[in-house]
Design goal:
The chain has 13 helices and 23 strands. It has helices spanning 3-13, 138-147, 163-167, 179-183, 194-203, 222-230, 276-286, 364-377, 424-434, 449-453, 465-468, 480-488, 506-518; strands at 29-30, 51-56, 66-72, 78-80, 113-120, 135-136, 155-160, 191-192, 207-210, 235-238, 251-255, 264-266, 268-272, 290-292, 318-325, 330-338, 344-346, 396-403, 442-446, 493-496, 522-525, 538-543, 554-559. 54% of the residues are buried. Helix 5 packs parallel to helix 6 and helix 8 (364-377) crosses helix 13 (506-518). It is α/β, with parallel strands linked by helices. It is globular, with a radius of gyration of 23 Å. The longest helix has 14 residues, at 364-377. It has two domains: 3-22 and 343-559, 3-Layer(bba) Sandwich (Glucose Oxidase, domain 1); 78-292, Putative cyclase (Glucose Oxidase, domain 1). Strands 1-13-11-5-7-9-10-4-12 form a nine-stranded mixed beta sheet. An eight-stranded mixed beta sheet has the order 14-23-22-18-19-20-21-17, covered by helices on one side. Strands 2-3-16-15 form a four-stranded antiparallel beta sheet, with no helix packed on it. Helix content is 21%, strand content 20%.
Length: 560
């Protein structure tokens, strides 16, 4: 049994209630580093350290576990995009050009995936003096091509040295990962020479990855190597791991939050082993058949839960500048945000308390809601299943888009704040017309709400704040009865193009999340562009693997 599946089973054992849908045997290989405060997940020289704060826990103040993150784009497994080294056009700086505008929120969805080409350079590990990287030269690539084939557009070249596998450990041993090489007390990681990146660029390669902390060789070739690749419009994945598990013919993908104007960003890398699915996804990415499904994260956009009234909001999304990069005329930046800002995962432990929780800890109002819920849907479960434990194959699968836009405008204004409710009858009608829902598929409810309302503030209040306060109708909600039905069909993941799956009524919403968690299901919220998905689309969502997190900022795309 795979580690990911074992973790899921352990989590489901902790959930009481009705039978749980368990995903099919995991086909996806997680290639990402765990993000946690006691690991060397942040670049050590002057960058803000990663922090996770459990701002609210389930109890008298709230029925939810609410987290706040401080996370820099150079955290864990991470993505570099052209503005990391290419200044914007018209800046007057060296190397300026149009690619200087392709920030992480602008990179096309197809470029994040492709055919995995793993080039073994393990022989280079620890072969240099302290503080110096061994260099991956063009000959290493040419030798691979001589044995296999010529590299081409649509390939993702992944250099495997074994560095992350060997040295990514909790502190104090974790200093060997980045801090010690940077301070020059141990040999640094293997990395490509600029000439190697030039060779790959000329082959048409648009993504390169490495299992080292940076695509930059120490001590002096970091920026030249970055520039050599990024000037071709490449993107990089840094700090991948477990590349020994990626076989020829695998599909590789990296996904991360769409930070506005991000020149780099935290990411989640994974692979689909060789087979029909991998071949299908490789073909889609190579032919640029992809749809972006995630919203942009920006402090001027309505990406954070405001709550009803005053003083009930969650931590706003904040971009905090620190170091100035003179060569780019840009500030480095970190982000402080609610763990469910923008497009995000809802794991079972968001609303389910841990084993042994005393229900009397809830407020009197929530205890009343729980009594009604358990009367209608059975015992609410318990769970300790946080984001990093949710296997990626549960958040990826064939997309089944159920159009519920007909519900918009069906509530009586006198009842606001209120959300129209999706019904089991509506879901069954979809099945009658499009075929039955099946285990392993991802059900996506298309309301059109985010597409209609997602705009800069203050106008963007129509997305979250106005519906919560009864100024406008709430977005369509997926009630516990529908979750119960989907669980009976074996569905493990439900998504919606709304700020939340449960709608604007507080009792309705918590019942939805209790039902999800108690059945071992997860949700992906705040999607958009669901109307652009053809029937043969494959949904991919990957949250950042933050240990102990009750939310999960991430990115959703679809390939078809």
């Amino acid at each position: 049994m795979s580690r990911c599946r074992l973790l899921l089973v352990i989590g489901l054992i902790a959930i009481t209630g009705r039978p749980q849908p368990v995903p099919a045997a995991a086909p996806l290989i997680d290639l990402s580093l765990l993000v946690a405060e006691d690991y060397p997940c942040t670049w050590p020289s002057g960058f803000p350290m990663f922090q996770l704060k459990h701002y609210r826990t389930i109890g008298s103040l709230t029925p939810y576990n609410i987290d706040v993150l401080t996370i820099d784009g150079n955290t864990g497994t991470q993505i570099d995009v052209p503005p990391h080294s290419i200044p914007r056009q018209g800046s007057g700086l060296a190397n300026e050009g149009p690619l200087g505008a392709i920030f992480i929120d602008k990179v096309p969805a197809w470029q994040y995936g492709g055919e995995a080409v793993v080039i073994d350079v393990t022989q280079l590990l620890n072969t240099t003096p302290n503080g110096v990287s061994s260099l991956i030269m063009p000959r290493h690539v040419l030798e691979w091509e001589k044995t296999h084939r010529k590299l081409r557009f649509g390939d993702v070249v992944l250099f495997r040295s074994g560095y992350t596998d060997k040295y990514y450990k909790p502190f104090p041993a974790g200093r060997r990962f980045v801090a010690a090489p940077v301070e020059g007390t141990v040999p640094a990681w293997p990395d490509p020479h600029p000439d190697t990146m030039t060779l790959l660029g000329r082959r048409g390669v648009q993504q390169v990855g490495c299992d080292s902390p940076s695509m930059g060789p120490l001590p002096t070739l970091g920026e030249p190597t970055h520039l050599a690749g990024l000037k071709f419009g490449m993107i990089f994945t840094e700090s991948v791991t477990r590349l020994d598990r990626v076989k020829p013919g695998s599909f590789y993908c990296v996904l991360g939050p769409r930070h506005a104007n991000g020149m780099y960003g935290e990411g989640r890398a994974f692979a689909v082993p060789p087979g029909k699915l991998a071949s299908r996804l490789i073909d889609s990415a190579r032919n640029k058949r992809a749809v972006e499904l995630s919203v942009v994260l920006d402090s001027q956009l309505p990406v954070t839960w405001t709550g009803p009234g005053i003083g009930n909001h969650r931590h706003p999304y904040i971009k905090a500048d620190f170091l100035y990069a003179r060569n780019l005329d840009l500030q480095h930046h970190t982000h402080m945000m609610d763990a469910q800002a923008g497009t995000h995962l809802v794991p079972p432990s968001y609303a389910l308390p841990p084993k042994g929780f005393n229900n009397s800890s809830y407020s009197k109002q929530v205890r009343g809601w729980l009594k009604e819920y358990e009367r209608d849907f059975g015992k609410r479960g318990t769970s300790s299943l946080t984001t990093e434990q949710v296997p990626l194959d549960q958040t990826c699968g064939e997309a089944r888009v159920i159009d519920v836009r007909s519900l918009v405008g069906t509530t009586d204004k006198a009842t606001w704040p209120a959300s129209p409710r999706v019904t089991v009858k509506l879901v069954k009608a979809f099945e009658a017309a499009r075929g039955p829902l099946k285990k392993g598929q991802v059900v996506l409810f298309h309301t059109g709400h985010v597409d209609r309302t997602f705009q800069p503030l203050p106008g963007g209040s129509i997305c979250i704040s106005d519906p919560l306060n009864g100024t406008t109708e709430g977005w369509p909600a997926v009630p516990a009865a529908v979750i119960d039905y989907l669980a009976s069909k074996g569905i493990g993941c439900v998504g919606s193009d709304t700020p939340s799956l449960g709608g604007v009524d507080e009792q309705q919403a918590v019942s939805t999340y209790w039902a999800l968690g108690s059945r071992g299901m997860v949700a992906v919220e705040f999607l958009h562009n669901l109307d652009k998905l053809p029937r043969n689309a494959y949904f991919l969502f990957a949250p950042i693997p933050i240990r102990g997190c009750h939310g999960g900022p991430g990115r959703a795309i679809a390939l078809y």
